[in-house]
């Protein structure tokens, strides 16, 4: 009887774990897309007023989000730097509960830049 109960508890635990397993990559639209845009704008303005780089969002081409100890957003975007516009791939790994928990990686035609900031 005890064994049955253990198996039941284990089964329940596995069901809960598998329901929240990370890894699914979702392309965002609607309210999620808007939230992802806010997240990106927040990072861009924090970096611009700190160590740089100094970018403004021109437009989002595509964003995906993945749950991995927080959220990992992957953006294909057009960024404005001064008077130039360039297309970059930007990754924001957001763990806002950590000090410097927001990691931003810019993959642009002129190279890669990685920055961290707090939420
Ligand atoms: C993000 O920033 C861009 C450029 O500054 C602006 O046009 C856009 O409306 C902002 N988006 C949001 C969701 O605030």
UniProtKB/TrEMBL annotation:
GO terms, molecular function: cysteine-type endopeptidase inhibitor activity
InterPro entries, per the entry: Cystatin-like (IPR053128), Cystatin_dom (IPR000010), Cystatin_sf (IPR046350)
Chain ranges of the Cystatin domain: 20-109
Record key words, sorted: Signal
CDD domains listed in its UniProt record: CY
Classification via Pfam families: Cystatin (PF00031)
Entry keyword annotation includes Iron: no
Keyword check for Signal: yes
Signal sequence residues: 1-19
UniProt xrefs under SMART domains: CY
Protein name: Cystatin domain-containing protein
Organism of origin: Drosophila mojavensis (Fruit fly)
Lineage: Eukaryota, Metazoa, Ecdysozoa, Arthropoda, Hexapoda
């Amino acid at each position: 009887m005890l064994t049955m109960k253990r198996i039941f508890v284990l089964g329940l635990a596995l069901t809960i774990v598998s329901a929240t397993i990370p890894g699914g990559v979702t392309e965002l639209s609607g309210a999620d897309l808007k939230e992802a845009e806010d997240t990106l704008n927040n990072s861009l303005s924090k970096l611009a007023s700190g160590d740089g780089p100094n970018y403004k969002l021109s437009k989002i081409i595509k964003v995906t989000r993945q749950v991995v100890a927080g959220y990992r957003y992957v953006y294909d975007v057009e960024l404005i730097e001064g008077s130039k516009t360039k297309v970059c791939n930007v990754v924001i790994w957001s763990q806002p509960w950590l000090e410097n928990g927001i990691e931003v990686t810019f993959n642009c035609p002129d190279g890669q830049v990685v920055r961290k900031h707090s939420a």
